[in-house]
Write a structure and sequence with these properties.
Elements: H1 8-21, H2 27-38, H3 55-69, H4 74-78, E1 80-83, E2 86-89, H5 99-115, E3 121-125, H6 131-139, E4 144-149, H7 152-164, E5 171-175, E6 192-197, H8 204-207, H9 212-215, H10 232-242, E7 245-255, H11 259-270, E8 274-281, E9 286-292
Parallel strand pairs: 3-4, 3-6, 4-5, 6-7
Antiparallel strand pairs: 1-2, 7-9, 8-9
Length: 293
Amino acid sequence: MRSPVNIVSSILTKWTRIFSHNQVPEPSTSAGYLVAHVLGKKTIATVSKQARLSSKQLLHVQQLCLQRLQRRPVQYIVGEWDFCDLTLKMKPPVLIPRPETEELVHLVLADLNDRCPSSALIMDVGCGSGAICLWLLKNRPDDRSIAVDISTEACQLTRDNAESTDLLRRLAVHRCDVTTESASTLKWPQSFDVVVSNPPYITPAEMADLDPELTWYEDERALLGGGPDGMDIIKEVVRFSQQTLKRGGSLWLEVGLAHPPLLRQFVMQHCTGLNFIAAHPDFTGRYCILNSL
């Protein structure tokens, strides 16, 4: 006997099959998140597989799944996503935070707790949705942060997320192109204990192999690093950070797999006020820490 078409198990089976047939990545996971969202849940694990959907809910699931068939990322479809223990709004074309960046913020938090136990001033370069600076502010209630991004949409989304997480009073957001603007012209009141950045670092060759979820919907400026090695924007972030870091302050960067030795060489040759400390491996890339001398 066939299961009714309006129960969760049947809906998941149907859309997983359709997604798989159309080569949508992670077909069962995509279906699960979208069905859960329609039912007011974050994950399908909290939903009974025998739960029944109304005709209105079935139509809503279909509308969301048709967007996924167009390779629109699940995060943009549902309009929010969790970064660590923060729920943040997600809107295209602002870069969706990646799981590996959650490891980066824990490393930065440990560094701040060690060097600045009471309070600190943090800069987030290329803030995107605000995930990095907002999570750090949540976990360090006496800190303040300035977040910058070249994208007007990213700056507004960071402000929106700061407001929804009740962190806006300790955050200032500025539209800023670090490749053309000098920190000295921005007239910030003081230097920073930590600068953290997940800059664009994808090479043109890598860009050609990315999934449509990235190339069709996310801002290319947040992905493409510039130059054949993807190092151009990373170098500009380092130069910009030199002007803003306190003596003894740290610069944390999330970069590509091939970049740590290139970054070390660049710092040694061109950045007399910085010292390359270490590269911390993660499961997809590298986190590099530099220290202001």
